[in-house]
Amino acid sequence: MQTREYDVIVIGAGPVGENVADRVVRGGLSCVIVESELVGGECSYWACMPSKALLRSGAALRAAESVDGAKQAVTGGVDVAGALRRRDVATHDWDDGSQVKWLEGAGIELVRGHGRVSGEKTVRVTGEDGGEIRLVARHAVAVATGSAALLPDIPGLREIDPWTSRDATSVQDVPATLAILGGGVVGAEMATAFASFGTKVTMIVRSGLLAAMEPFAGELVQTALEDLGVVFHAGVDVTAAHRTDKNAVLTLSDGGRVVAEQVLVATGRVPRSGDLGLDSVGLEPGSWLDVDDTLLVTGTDWLYAVGDVNHRVLLTHQGKYQARAAGDVIVARANGGAVDAAPWGVHVATADHDAVPQVTFTDPVVASVGLTEKAARAAGRSIRVLDYDLSWVAGSSTVSDSYVGQARAIVDEDRGVLIGATFVGPDVAELLHSATIAIVGEVPLERLWHAVPSYPTVSEVWLRWLEAYGRPTV
């Protein structure tokens, strides 16, 4: 068997693995990346990029319909074929040639095949032809294999061949009817997209829509989805599934039934770690990999787990943030340099704990960062909640003639700083980074009085929050 030696081995060539490899090479170390599917990973071909491409056509159409002078030009619904073409452009027709060229340009070697840890700092790669290569790392191995859709243990569910998020985002023939199991981000976004295409969508949401967010987020999104014709079954479980000649039939715990041409399961994720050879180094196959803030796997001094597979935050941008920290700390340790592992140090992923930003591309959009009211109270924080109706700011009328939105700020009273923010409404995604900066930078509210929002924009909500909180007196 051929053996090759590198400073660092990365398993998984999605955005997270690419970023680990890039930081390592920039730091002067040699690196090989192992990939069994497409270079660019889930985000590029089956998640972030195709899903947002599918969502945009409907969002743009509804935005035009909400503005007098533009709505008169709208003469039809979403052209589904055009929306799918746009998705195909975003995914490069599932061709990773440009991503491979980027690796080559960055000085990162690629090995195609399935990588398994076979011992300390050792990875065995099995290619499509069955041939094997043994890779040995001088310093570190980083696992960046991501996560996969969870299929719950419901009698008959696997036999009806349900969709996962991959099937939904790579769809070629849009179904007339679609049942969605789960009310999280994937379920809400795909309900928005397919309802925009004219599909009759039914959602089965046991714990409510977007339940991990502020309650008003799920409420506003559900109202908008119902306006698009989506039907909700809340507080119920699917107890059984079977398929007829044309449709899938789901039996509900309340005795009801849902019949749909296709079923999308969006009930959670599992780690892609079941066939990685983790048992060879004393770790549990198929488990989430526990790491410290430098992304080093607990109990090892050479194995790192970055991105979804460590279960800290299942978001691409947060995984890339972890990758930058992991790559840099691998270089520092390889060179015997100092490790800055204090909170907010360059070698740690501190933001994973209380400063995670996320945009949910429903219509209305949900943009959130930091702690919700519920999470802050559960953590024992002394807080004040500031709520504001976004339709009351002057900038909302420039966006839409019928703007509906809500914003909430969570203030840590002991420190006088923002620790959470949620915006729901049209065009609120671009408000999020200012809130993220305020939270990460721990900017005192008294200083934020001097951050003047432009007029007329929706960002004027910042001033309204401060007015509600009250200006400090001398």
From TrEMBL:
Belongs to the class-I pyridine nucleotide-disulfide oxidoreductase family. Disulfide bonds join 43-48. FAD binds at residues 52, 115, 145-147, 308. Pfam families: Pyr_redox_2, Pyr_redox_dim. Residues 6-319 form the FAD/NAD(P)-binding domain. The lineage of its organism: Bacteria, Bacillati, Actinomycetota, Actinomycetes, Micrococcales. Residues 356-462 form the Pyridine nucleotide-disulphide oxidoreductase dimerisation domain. This is NAD(P)/FAD-dependent oxidoreductase. Its cofactor is FAD.
